[in-house]
User: What shape does this take?
Amino acid sequence: MADNAPFSVCFSGHRPEQLPVGTAMQMLRRRLLDEIESAVRDGADTFYTGMAQGIDILAAESVLSCRRKRCLPLRLIAVRPYANHGKELRRTALYRYNSILEGADEVIVLREAYARSCYSERNAYMIEHSRRLIAVVGNMQSGTGQTIRMAEKAGLELRILKIAPVLR
Assistant: This one.
């Protein structure tokens, strides 16, 4: 996209236990930031995060960092699948979660209470409101893989960052 028409981007990716550590994680952070910066150059001005631990949180922090360090007029929208989402978090995870909520331009809560379908509903909401998906995936038989297939079916531009499956 070279027309720089404003558009929205959403994120999907694995939870922390499925992500690399050490140098590989630092490289993944850089690749994710590169994709965000590329989206901004292409005209993205709004980013949706589903607020899950792992890539959603990392991506949201990266968007907030870009906005702050580069003085870019980027919007971050936090999409919580249900009202108490994140209440189980402790210490650093809770601090990061709440920092994103405070830094977000808008917080959308899709359901009052948890339901089995709430995560797929959250993903569908973000896809419906986006033109591009940035996803980090090592296992296509996962929620992230399902989101990628949903975005592909909806015709979104896909930016897939493949990682090696983590065996721990």
Q: What stands out?
A: The longest helix spans residues 22-42. The radius of gyration is 15 Å. The chain has one domain: 7-162. The mean pLDDT is 93.
